[in-house]
Amino acid sequence: MVFSSRDFSRRRIGAAAALVMAGAVLAGCGGGGSSTDPDRGKDAKSFSLTITRNAIEGGKNTEEAEWITKSVIPRFVAAQKAKGVTAKVTFRGQGVDDEAYKTKLALDLKSRSGADIMDIDGIWVGEFAQAGYIKPLSEVVGAPADAWDGWTKIPGSVQKLAMFEDERYGVPPATDGRLLYFNKKLFAQAGLPADWQPRSWPDIIAAARALKKLPGVTPIQLNAGTAMGEATTMQGFLPMLAGAGAEIYTDGKWTGGGPAVQQALGLYAQIYGSEGLGDPKLQQEAKGRDKSFEEFAAGKIGILAEGDYFWRDVINPKTGVAKMKTRDQDVGYALIPAISPGKGVRGQDFVSMSGGSVTVLNPNTEYPQQAFELLAFMNSAEMIKARTAGTPEITSRTDVNKEILAGDPFLTFVSEKVLPVTSYRPGLAVYPQVSTALQEATAAVVSGKTPQQAAAEYTEKLEGIVGGAAHVTPR
């Protein structure tokens, strides 16, 4: 994978790199891509391929680099040798800032050079596709791309991470999910059940009201405002928007400040408004998100919306940044409900948001068939298990998850319950600006504006960002 902690929501996509990519899109799609035969080099008895990702042995994401050099490459080369084919595979590791990595890939692809196989963040897929830098697998490889048996092991909801306009551009090796965490001790004191699973937003509010009776406890933390950056959008607003039955981008248009946006902002108004169920000051602090982690670990926050990263890396009793020794006994987790049953996106009762990296092919590779064979090998059950050895995580493959997560109730819950109902952010160049506008809308509500006022201001900003009202759904 490209990123170290797999907490994809915490990173901000840099404006400079976004502008570089946006400029490439505006300049036309002549920069990358190839229309040559996908069967070129198919019968070669010897071939060379290169792999790149933002990982380097002894440095950034060293485990990923070691997995490629010590497991993937030697085993793939050996498998080819058994077929009478000589394969040379080289790993070109990077260990740089994510934006520098992105810019390097863009320049390579624009000049029709670069590695044959590369990892990109899922949020870049649409952006790179629109620029002509990557092509659908079915175009690069032909029929074998759709015939790969691995697709049957990757849920359709997870495959969407690697898709743009209904075309697959690569394979997502892993992903994550958003859910609700709650403190069982505080719930018991408030008379709430230890197996709490809200079925609607009113259920969440009811639990928060019960928790409000406990002295020194903030009932709920739902990330808001601009200080928390993309965490506000990914952990807070977008899951609630999905719960209101909408996605931020669908059918070629961005979702304006209509009913769904107003309902999501209305939930913020309930939490941070007159009822006082959340701490509005926390949303404005530069380190507010980190402080919310510490307060939850200390038993001062009752309900918190976050990604599975929170369980694995934040309140982990051994390695967490806000260690919670009693995590396994005192922390419960639940699906995020729709505003009411059946009213979520796609008619769902529960919703989530996910992120992750995608392994793609360079459309200019001299050996598309062999490159796809290596891509499929990297994402086989055997290789995914080798990559996760000793560090259980949620992979994209259901067969692997069932095996390696068997002893981990939490990750099994995310894999089996959260991922089937998840959604993804649109991988388009203007998304970071749209995300900022959403953060500003939540900040406006926290500061006292009505959901309707904040939604109207958001719509006006959105139209300016995406090129006018024609690209936005009605208010």
Structural summary, described in words:
α10 crosses α19 (431-446), α11 packs across α19 and α19 (431-446) packs antiparallel against α20 (451-466). Helices cover 42% and strands 14% of the residues. By secondary structure, it is α/β, with parallel strands linked by helices. It has a five-stranded mixed β-sheet. The chain has a four-stranded mixed β-sheet with strand order 8-11-7-12, with helices on both faces. A hairpin with a 2-residue loop joins β4 (163-164) and β5 (167-168). The chain folds into two domains: 15-172 and 356-387, D-Maltodextrin-Binding Protein, domain 2; 178-353 and 429-471, Periplasmic binding protein-like II (D-Maltodextrin-Binding Protein, domain 2, 3-Layer(aba) Sandwich), CATH 3.40.190.10.
Q: Report the helical percentage.
A: 40-55%
**Architecture of the largest domain, CATH level 2?**
3-Layer(aba) Sandwich
Shape: globular
Class inferred from helices and paired strands: alpha/beta
Overall number of structural domains? 2
Number of extended strands:
16
CATH class of the largest domain reads Alpha Beta
* β-sheet strand percentage: 5-15%
Query: For the largest beta sheet, what order do the strands appear in spatially?
Result: 2-1-3-15-6
The CATH homologous superfamily of the largest domain is called Periplasmic binding protein-like II
Number of helices: 20
Q: What name does the CATH topology of the largest domain carry? A: D-Maltodextrin-Binding Protein, domain 2
Rg of Cα set: 23 Å
Measured between the Cα atoms of the first and last residue, the distance is 39 Å
| Average pLDDT metric | 91
Largest sheet: 5 strands, mixed
Given as residue ranges, the uncertain stretches (5+ residues, pLDDT < 50) are 1-34
